[in-house]
Amino acid sequence: MKRTLLVLFVFISINSFSQGTTFTPAIVINAQTGSNPLAIDSGDLDADLSNPSDVNKSIDIVIGTYFGSTIEWYKNDGNGNFTIQPLVSSTLTGIYDIEIADLNGDNYNDILAASYAENKLVWYANDGAGGFGSEQIISNTFNGAFKIIAGKIDDDSTIDIAAIAYNSGAISWYANDGAPWTELNIKTTPASAPTDFDLKDIDNDGDLDITVAYAGSGVVELYYNPLDPPANNPIVFFEDTNNPVSSGNSGGLYDVSIADVDDDGFPLDIIKADYNGNVAWYEKEGDGTFTETIINIADQAVPYRPSNARIADLDNDMHNDIIVSNAITVNDDIIWMESNDDDTFMMEVAIDATQFQVYDLTINDFDDDGDLDIASISYQDNDQQDSSLNLFLNNKIILGVSSNSIDIIKIHPNPVKDKLNFKGSFSAPLNISIYNILGKKIYDKTIELNSGLDVSNLQSGFYIIKFEGFNDTYKLVKE
């Protein structure tokens, strides 16, 4: 009975305040980044989230530029004000993707990059204060390096690397067992022009699976990770589903990700965007096949060219919304579609129409107010010469009226991958409980407020956090 009451409280509290949200006009962080940025990510790069003495606990931003040959990181003062720091690199050319992860296990986030022009996968070690070391090679023969993702692929404690190569068609992973890195196959036979992929536990079995999008065929495929390699072939960890997620009904695939589109927990869904103007999501059925649902974007004077389709709860109503960015130089550059709470979505609302070719964006709580904001890169601006980094702050009012705990206690980052951090004005330890979406308590621990909590073993999905002595609840999204 107690468990049921908790669930009712959470949903009644949230739904009664669900009224959508708006965003600020573009806040220009840098009006002239390195030329033609293609990649962006966000996370704690100066270790202020884990440092109790640092009052500016915040989410920072890193971008990679294709023709500018720069990796730039921007320090956040905690209120969404960013200052560019010394360049991580000014020599790596043709950067196509960027990723933040603690690759060497020292509790400081490092930076990974994929260089299409140089056929490289590289990383830069963080010294703990936001300074970065020299380029370290994961591979310099990855022909047409396109995308790179970090995650725990095998059954040890280290963060591994997965990557795709557009030119060679390679879909590979690298076990983090120390240099030199050894390339292992995810798909043994290269396919034509993989353009994007994602790495998440789609089937809730405790390991990370991979979905891949192919530009030439328009097919989306899924490869399951059985965690333990087959005895007769110890280097192949992943299993082909032998049943594509999509059958190739649209070419020009640009973006694919694993997410809970319909808010039903596991199994997770898959969402894609292609250059022909299509956004669609796929729900796994009991027989292992996937059902496609098209997301309609209203007709405009010229076709919309989606470069990203992201899933996030922008209005704090416990239902995931869709955020889409545009890869061409006309029409709305970033739009969002609010969930109707029934597996459908409202008509799109423009967040911004001032940028040119938004090839990538990142979603995080940049101003530390409890809702999700958006940072994006404009590949070229109105004069078609300069490039920019822009921020859009979410104006959603923080939920919860029964106490002031949400104003006093903050959690970072949210969504979270591995480590959840807390900050606030309390000096005494606090008792924290974590509940799954069914209201079952799965975690109960006493923590110091300005300390971190390892949540890497939590499965991807939604959770509710409650602190003993406070009535407010927090929604946590585990990536």
Automatic annotation (TrEMBL):
Pfam families reported for this sequence: FG-GAP_3, Por_Secre_tail
UniProt entry tagged with the keyword Signal: yes
Keyword Signal part of the UniProt annotation: yes
Coiled-coil segments: none
Position of the signal peptide: 1-18
Domain Secretion system C-terminal sorting: 411-473
Keyword annotations from UniProtKB, A to Z: Signal
Superkingdom as given in the UniProt entry: Bacteria
Alphabetized InterPro entries for the sequence: FG-GAP (IPR013517), Integrin_alpha_N (IPR028994), Secre_tail (IPR026444)
PANTHER family: PROPROTEIN CONVERTASE P (PTHR44103:SF1)
Name the record gives this protein: T9SS type A sorting domain-containing protein
The species this protein was found in: Gilvirhabdus luticola
